[in-house]
Write a structure and sequence with these properties.
This protein starts with 9 loop residues before the first strand and ends with a helix. The protein has helices spanning 20-31, 47-57, 70-76, 88-95, 113-121, 132-147, 157-165, 191-194, 199-202, 212-220, 222-234, 273-280, 312-323, 327-343, 351-362, 371-391; strands at residues 10-15, 36-43, 61-64, 83-86, 102-105, 125-128, 152-154, 174-181, 242-246, 252-258, 263-267, 304-305. The strands form 2 sheets. A 7-stranded parallel beta sheet has the order 4-3-2-1-5-6-7, sandwiched between helices. Strands 11-10-8-9-12 form a 5-stranded mixed beta sheet, covered by helices on one side. The chain is of the alpha/beta class. Strand 2, helix 2 and strand 3 (61-64) form a beta-alpha-beta unit.
Length: 394
C-alpha cells in the first residue's frame, strides 16, 4: 500500500488484553506504531501484566475486572495520565469509550456478551475473538450489528479464513464451508484411552499456543463445535452448509465451496497474529515479518472425518444448532462449568459431555429467546452443571 492510501490511526479498545489473543494483538500493534493506537486495555484478573501493558502502550483507560485489585492497578499507574476502573460492569464502559473505533473482544467466555452489545450500540466495529458471544446470542447480536451498521470482523483463524475467502464473492452463492480442525492432542484416540486422561495431557496442543480453556475445548472438539455455531451467524448459513474436516497440519485454515463446485482455501503457518492483524486493519493488508509458509516443509497434507461419536461435544454442538433457540446458550454455559471442573480434577474428560447433554435435556427450551432469556438460561445452566459436577452422578 503506498503512502497516499494510508488511513488514519485505528484506535483499538482491547477487552482481555492479558490473554493469549490480547497479548498477540499488542505484538501486532507494537510492530505498527504508525497504524494503531491503544485507547483502552482491560483484564479480568492479571493486574501485574495489565500494569506492564499500560505503562508501555499508554492507553487513556484501563479496567481490571477483579475489584479487589483496583488499588494495586491505580497506585501503580498513579504517575501516568490513565483512568482506572474496576468491576465487570466497567468492561461495558470501556467498550463504549469515545476514543476507540474498533473493539477487540478477547475476553474468555460469556462475560464478553454485555460489553460487545454495548460496543455495537455505540457504533463501534467488533474484532470478534470471543466466540461465545455469537454462540450464546448469535441471532440477537447479528441483528443488532445490522441495526447499528456495525461490522463484525472474525479473529478466530478458521472464521478469518472463511471471511478472507469470501472477499470479492459477495454475489456468489456458498454451497458449503469446511472448518478445519487439528484434531487436538487426542486425535485417533478411543473412549477407553480418553476415560483416564488428565488435564496435563489435554493442555498439550500439537500446533497452537492458547489459553487453558480454549485448549481443553480443542482437545474435546467443543471448540470446533462452538466455531460451527459461530459460523452460522457470521456467514448467514444453514446448519447443513457447515462441515468439519480434520487437518492435523493446521495449514489450511478453512475452505469455502461455491455453488459451481469450485473451492477457495486460506492457508498459512499457524500464527494467530495474522487473523488478528487482518481484523484490526480490515480491509487492507499490512506488510509484516511473520514466518512465511514453505511447501517443502509440508510435503503432505492430510484430511479425515471428525470423530463425533468419540468426541461427543462436536455432535452436541451440531444438535444444539439444529434445535436453535436458547439451546446453544445452554451448551456453552454448561461447557464453561465442566471445563473449569476438569481443570480442577473434579470431572473426567468424557464426563464433560455427559454433564452438557444432561443440561441440554433438563433446562427449559425457549424457541424465540429475548436478551434476558439468554442471560437467565446462562445462569440456570451454570447452576445445574455445577450441581451435576458436585454430585458426581456420572
Amino acid at each position: 500500500m503506498n503512502n497516499k492510501t494510508i488511513k488514519q490511526y485505528n484506535t483499538i479498545i482491547i477487552l482481555g488484553s492479558t490473554g493469549s489473543i490480547g497479548t498477540q494483538a499488542l505484538e501486532v500493534i507494537r510492530d505498527h506504531p504508525n497504524r494503531f493506537k491503544v485507547s483502552v486495555l482491560s483484564a479480568l484478573k492479571n493486574a501485574e501484566l495489565l500494569i506492564q501493558q499500560a505503562i508501555e502502550f499508554k492507553p487513556e483507560m484501563v479496567v481490571i475486572g477483579d475489584e479487589s485489585k483496583y488499588l494495586e492497578v491505580k497506585n501503580a499507574l498513579a504517575l501516568y495520565n490513565i483512568k482506572v476502573l474496576a468491576g465487570e460492569e466497567a468492561l461495558s464502559e470501556a467498550a463504549v469509550y469515545p476514543k476507540g473505533n474498533i473493539v477487540l473482544t478477547a475476553i474468555m467466555g460469556s462475560v464478553g456478551l454485555k460489553p460487545t452489545i454495548a460496543a455495537i450500540k455505540a457504533g463501534k466495529d467488533i474484532a470478534l475473538a470471543n466466540k461465545e458471544t455469537l454462540v450464546v446470542a448469535g441471532e440477537y447480536i447479528t441483528a443488532l450489528a445490522k441495526e447499528y451498521q456495525v461490522k463484525i470482523l472474525p479473529v478466530d483463524s478458521e472464521h478469518s479464513a472463511i471471511f478472507q475467502c469470501l472477499v470479492g464473492e459477495e454475489q456468489n452463492e456458498i454451497e458449503k464451508i469446511y472448518l478445519t480442525a487439528s484434531g487436538g492432542p487426542f486425535l485417533g484416540k478411543d473412549k477407553n484411552f480418553l476415560s483416564s486422561v488428565k488435564k496435563e495431557q489435554a493442555l498439550k496442543h500439537p500446533n497452537w499456543v492458547m489459553g487453558a480453556k480454549i485448549t481443553i475445548d480443542s482437545a474435546s472438539l467443543m471448540n470446533k463445535g462452538l466455531e460451527v455455531i459461530e459460523a452460522k451467524w457470521l456467514f448467514n448459513l444453514d446448519v447443513n452448509q457447515i462441515d468439519v474436516i480434520v487437518h492435523p497440519q493446521s495449514i489450511v485454515h478453512s475452505l469455502v465451496q461455491f455453488t459451481d463446485g469450485s473451492m477457495k482455501a486460506q492457508m498459512g503457518v499457524p500464527d494467530m497474529k495474522l487473523p488478528i492483524q487482518y481484523a484490526l486493519n480490515h480491509p487492507d493488508r499490512l506488510k509484516n515479518n511473520f514466518k512465511r509458509f514453505n511447501f517443502l516443509d509440508y510435503p503432505t497434507f492430510t484430511f479425515q472425518q471428525a470423530d463425533s461419536k468419540t468426541f461427543r461435544n462436536l455432535e452436541l454442538a451440531f444438535s444444539s444448532l439444529k434445535k436453535g433457540g436458547n439451546m446453544p446458550c445452554i451448551l456453552n454455559a454448561a461447557n464453561e462449568i465442566v471445563v473449569e471442573a476438569f481443570l480442577q480434577d473434579k470431572v473426567g474428560f468424557l464426563q464433560m459431555s455427559d454433564v452438557i447433554e444432561c443440561c441440554m435435556d433438563e433446562i427449559s427450551f425457549i424457541e424465540k429467546p429475548e436478551l434476558n432469556d439468554y442471560l437467565e438460561t446462562d445462569k440456570h445452566s451454570r447452576i445445574l452443571a455445577a450441581e451435576l459436577v458436585t454430585k458426581s452422578i456420572f
